Amino acid sequence: MVVKEKDTGLEGIAVKIGDKVWGTYQGLAGTFATFADGCLRKKTLAGFHQKGLISGAAVKDKTLSLTLSGNHTRPKLIEMMDIALQNIGAYPAKGVNAAYFIGVKSEDNTKKGR
Amino acid sequence: MALITSQQYLDSIKKMKPRVYVGGKWVKNLLENPVTKSMVMANAAIYDLAQEPESKEIMIATSHLTGEPINRNLNVARNIHDLDMRQEMALLTSQVVGTCNYRCVGCDALNSVAATTWEMDRDLGTKYNERFNKWLAYAQKNDLAVSGAITDAKGDRKKRPTQQADKDVFLNLVEKRDDGIVVSGYKVSQSGAIGAHETLVLPGGGLKDDEGDFALAFAVQNSVPGLSYICQYNAYSAEREMFGDEIEELGNPIYGQRETSTMVFDKVFIPWERVFLCGETKYAGRMVTRFAKAHRMNCGGACKVGFCDVIIGGTMLAAEYIGVEKVPHIQEKIIDMVRLSETSHACAIAAAMRGREEPKGSGVYLPDDLFGNAAKLNIAHGFWEVIKNAGDIGGGLVVTMPRLKDLEDPEVGPTLKKVFGAAAPAEKRLKVAKFLQHWAAGLHGAGTWHGAGAPQTQRFMFTVLTDFEKKKKMAKKLMGMKEDVAPKAAAKK
User: Fold this and answer.
1) How deeply is B172 buried, as exposed, middle or buried, from its count of CB atoms within 10 A (0-12, 13-18, 19+)?
2) Is the CB of A88 inside 8 Å of chain B's CB atoms?
């Protein structure tokens, strides 16, 4: 076969809130770069078109630290990241070794998840 | 998960939030807007077909990359049988949805990219084919709906891309970075791009050496930041919006007319892993030509034949409902409709059967160019005749009918039932008239003319592909005419 399992060109991305990983995704290599470019250069979260949603974004090593404006519970943040990642071509995948991380938090941390 | 169900596709689409504009408003959910929903439902029906035992041979192929079963819409043809099943898929999907298989252009585009990237890697030592195969394996693994984007806006046709007042009328390179490229511009008339997971973008035509900024091919996710879709809007869009959930009022209730959009790329980032052509102008034209070669067989000789099948069926019902089905000139017109459509299908089958590996060694099979162009050119003209006959036999009612639900109006309904009752009840007559209106007074006539390239492009290809000198020699030989002698040589004699 032309594409071997060990050389599929896929990359794993983990979503973290605080220190805990809440979801892992897999997309074609370059997916994290696309996601980060959208947040940093276009100030847009894929799948969310309202302006001002991203109040902070920075990439260090292989981690994108993302701050979303407004109050968002933890479940809401998880749901938003799930939509954003699937809109950029990364799909939920269990048992994936994440090469990249997206740390996300709400700008107003007063609203805690239940 | 190489094959997903229609429900899985619909679930994925619920999460997809592309930036889509339809008739004055931005659409937040493709399944809540009646116009965009029709396009998505057509795609869902195509996923369904791959689950049905009787259509599996047509709809399912084996990935040459992984050996897994995959939807044929994501298959690279590796032999004659693949080409034949590809054109049969185009026929079947049109018969089932009566509109585009919105994964069709993507399928033909990926065959072209497979062939051309292999050639580039061989000639130039690039890694495009390796990249493309990884992208394709990923698309196959997730059974993604992939649309294709070819047609640039093109601007002033007297000017080359670099001479245009607005460079964006041809999709162009804005920036080349370490991690990828940034592109801007427009792709127009993109069938079903809004409901695709990804779009495979190709150059719009052949390019000269100094036009490298326009030699681009890449795969893009449909909701990537900077990408927007401005959808077509016409009387059929307005009608669908007006009727809302009362879709039974419409000519093609679930799947609608053909939905297209203009894709607007505003400095969109594409990582290198998704780039399959960047600056190699020599290969841009080949990529487009190979796409056209595949698409003219499928779009011209099979897809539109499927449309003709349902139009012929509707026309026969219209004839029966008014009791003229045995009138000789009606039968003759219906036979003409069959002749026109089946002639095109024969060309598509011939294009598949005479297909061959291109380039040699690539493993990619493409249809015969001449027969593919014949299929498309024949149906471009034939389709007008088919819908003309549908309007002829369907009668003036096709465009003068009242609403279907007027039959239930307490005041005018009883009168309408008397007016339009014939050999069948008024309900049946009006229903089939509405169906024929959808075709005879709809968007598919001009759509068929231009889809896969306007007929002038096929005529041009005929001039390139036909050996006219050989034909003249054959005629001369048969007539016993000697070869021409040059004037000077004749004078010496």
Assistant:
1) buried
2) yes
